[in-house]
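sorry to bug you again but im stuck and you know this stuff better than me. what follows is a protein written twice so to speak, once as letters and once as structure tokens for the fold. mainly i need to know what kind of three dimensional shape the backbone takes. anything you notice is useful, everything is just below:
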Amino acid sequence: MSLELLLGHYSNKIQAQSNPTEFAYANVKYSRQGDKVELKQWYQHEGEKKPYLRMLLEYEESHNYLRMWGKNLYTGRNTCPQVFRFTGKWWEGGTEGSCIVDGMKFVTTIRFNGSQYQSRDSGYSVETGEHVFGKHHDKGFFLFERV
């Protein structure tokens, strides 16, 4: 059930038009590819054929649990697993455990409910703890609506 709610195309058009200096106009799409799931993310002005992120994910799910992991199709690297649990209205989760790549700690937080998808990705220097990229935790989430 959780995967079925996640699959689809989402856009943050309303948020991006309301606050373009803080939120780029982006799209997120989860689609089945055989027994796996493809994740693509792209900026609206570049189009779906030029995604900035593309992953092929495996998954396991149960009644109130979804875990996803796989490969970044651009770098060939394994992705850090993400785990989601149902909290009553939302599936909530993100990076499982510590996700460190090239001296950077990646922290992803995602929630979805079938019509809305909210996410925040952040990267921190392992050495200094300094916020290096993505949204700082106090800047809110990217707010996507199902297209």
Remarks:
- The chain has one domain: 2-146.
- The chain has a mean pLDDT of 96.
- The domain at 2-146 is CATH 2.40.128.590 (Lipocalin).
- The longest helix spans residues 13-18.
